[in-house]
Amino acid sequence: MKLKLLLFTTLCFAQLGYSQNLVQLAKLKPAGAYENVKVQKIYSNKHTSSFVIWIKKGVKAHKHLKHTEQVYILAGKARMRLDDQTFEVKKGDWIAIPEGSVHAVTVTSRKPLQVFSVQSPEFLGKDRVFVKE
C-alpha cells in the first residue's frame, strides 16, 4: 500500500511539473574546475532567468541596461559595490540590483561566494556592460 501511494504521489508531482522545477540550491556543487567564476543556469524563459554562481575572487564593476537582478547569498562573504554604496554581504543576505545600477563584488571569505541570481527579463548574456572604476 505504501509503495502504491508513493508511486501515485510521484506520478502526480511529475505531471504537475514539480519534479522538473525543484532544485535544492544549497546542495549544488560547481561542475568541473574554474578559475574565478562558475555559472550554472537553473531556469529560464522569456520573463526571467535564474542561476547559481560561484565566485572565487570577484566580479568587475558592470551594469545591465535592461535587466533587474536579485541576488541571494547562499555561502561565503564578500564586499559588494552597488552604485555609490559599498557594504559587506554574507549567507542569508538578499540584494536587489535595479537595471542600470553599477555593481561589483570582491570575495572576502576563504571559500567561494555562492549566490542565487534571478534576472528579469530573460538574460541571454548580451546585457552586461563593464564600466571603468
Automatic annotation (TrEMBL):
<protein>
    <submittedName>
        <fullName>Cupin domain protein</fullName>
    </submittedName>
</protein>
<dbReference type="InterPro" id="IPR001538">
    <property type="entry name" value="Man6P_isomerase-2_C"/>
</dbReference>
<feature type="domain" description="Mannose-6-phosphate isomerase type II C-terminal">
    <location>
        <begin position="28"/>
        <end position="129"/>
    </location>
</feature>
<dbReference type="Pfam" id="PF01050">
    <property type="entry name" value="MannoseP_isomer"/>
</dbReference>
<dbReference type="InterPro" id="IPR011051">
    <property type="entry name" value="RmlC_Cupin_sf"/>
</dbReference>
<dbReference type="GO" id="GO:0005976">
    <property type="term" value="P:polysaccharide metabolic process"/>
</dbReference>
<dbReference type="GO" id="GO:0016779">
    <property type="term" value="F:nucleotidyltransferase activity"/>
</dbReference>
<dbReference type="InterPro" id="IPR014710">
    <property type="entry name" value="RmlC-like_jellyroll"/>
</dbReference>
<dbReference type="InterPro" id="IPR052538">
    <property type="entry name" value="Flavonoid_dioxygenase-like"/>
</dbReference>
